[in-house]
Amino acid sequence: MKLLNHFQDLSSPVKRAEGHYLLLESNRKILDFSLGSGAQIFGHSYGPVVRSLGNAIANYQVHGCLPDSHHKVTSLIGKAIPDTFAGLVFSSSGSEATQRAIRYARQISGKQKIAHFWGNWHGMNEWTLLDDGSRLGVDIKDTGIPQETLNKTRVTLTYGSLDELKETLLREDVGALIIESVPGATPLEFSIDFLSSVLKVCKELGIVSIVDEMISGFRVNIGGVCGTYDLNPDLITYGKIIGAGYPIGITAISESALDSLMSNSTNTVLTGGTFSGNPIALTGVLTILELLSDFNYSELDATAVSLRSEINILCRDLNLPVKAIGFHSISRLVFTDREFFNRDQRDRLELENWSLFSGLKKNMLDKHGVYLPKNGLLFTCSLTTNVEKEKLMNSLDAELRSLKRAAN
Q1: How is the beta sheet containing 29-32 ordered, strand by strand?
Q2: Which of 32, 93, 155, 170 has the smallest number of CB atoms closer than 10 Å to its CB?
Q3: For residue 89, which phi and psi values (nearest 5 degrees)?
Q4: Residue 407 buriedness (CB in 10 A; 0-12 / 13-18 / 19+)
Q5: Is pLDDT larger for residue 155 or for residue 126?
Q6: Is the pTM of this model over 0.85?
Q7: Which has more pLDDT, 308 or 405?
Q8: Torsion of CA 270, 130, 181, 7, to 10 degrees
Q9: What is the Cα–Cα distance from 227 to 221, expressed in whole angstroms?
């Protein structure tokens, strides 16, 4: 039997994850800068999290009834996210959270057509899935998603273009729009200004707005991007960090959107799911929220900014077309030194240099035991010290100098 799920290839399966490291079955120790695709803000197997979840597992698994932690969990989330929000729907993944958000937005607007941006990633959500998220625009053929249906119910926009945005939304009679708070493909400061402008246009045109904070939520700050920058969309989706390393998705609904959703007698608001809001997941949420209540986000950000700076100094010294970009503690290694604003531009620029850098990540893993994920995103955590930074920089220095020699 063949396992078809996509996993990162580390040459040997992982038998334990602890702190900033993965221990493979081969007994090799790997420095991990993926950190569960950004989900592990305290590193792997963090003591308080392990103890809390262990106690919960000893008491219950899935029972389909209201967990005893739900009041405290909903209260803490309500204090963390923007105070304009009044309803939460739990699910078991980020993909499910965005899918639910789109469904609720359609019910609120009474329209079927939704808009999203090329290069934004909302998980395995069929309404926004254009490809598998592959770098460099790999051509995906038949995905099993009914294109005829999508052509009638979905509009794809160019990220970064406000002129196109308003014109298209008016022409296509769009009911809802979904956008990443900070795109993983292009984590840039510019994203906040663009996001703010998009939300203003949505409000002006009466379009239901959804902000996907799967990566930025509880990482940029406990209130995510929307809480930090005082942004108030109609719906927000969360996941990753808030689940303490376990499957989680949350769809938050603003008070005004909830009123619209619940006041329409023709709406049936579907929120069920066997594992949605299960007691283990909520225990993880509660533990993380308590840990984040006095977490030093400034220190986390400073570590990431310092790391990006060191990488960029090295790349400039070597005169190589590669750089580190990022927003708070979300970082990305890109294989161009030119400016870009969206994934399409990034992909085109990286293609020019891909033959030079295509083997870099494999060499970092095989030769130095440093894991840089295929999607290009690098995450720091509370356990990222000078030891981890130095190991990454020494490995990157060695490999980039080797590439420089090979190119000359």
Answers
A1: 14-18, 21-24, 29-32, 370-371
A2: 170
A3: -125, 120
A4: exposed
A5: 155
A6: yes
A7: 308
A8: 90
A9: 8
Q: Tokens 């490999």 — which residue? A: 399
Collapsed DSSP state (helix, strand, coil) of residue 244: coil
The amino acid present at 225, given as its one-letter code, is V
Of 71-75, 82-86, 261-265, the least confident = 261-265
Closest CA to 251 of 109, 84, 94: 94
> With contact defined as beta carbons under 8 Å apart, do 88 and 250 qualify?
yes
The DSSP annotation for 321-367 comes to: S-EEEEETTEEEEES--S--SSHHHHHHHHHTTHHHHTTHHHHHHHH
Region of 46 (left: φ > 0; alpha: ψ -120 to 50; beta: rest) is beta
Q: How far apart are CA 257 and CA 179, in angstroms?
A: 17
pLDDT exceeds cutoff 90 at 127: no
CA torsion, ordered 311, 315, 320, 326, to nearest 10 deg: 40
Place of tokens 């994203």: 191
Dihedral over alpha carbons 364, 367, 368, 372 (to 10 degrees): 20
CA separation for the pair 261, 269 (Å, rounded): 8
Task: Please state the length of the chain.
Answer: 408
Nearest to 165 by CA among 197, 192, 128: 197
Other CB atoms within 10 Å distance of the CB of residue 374: 14
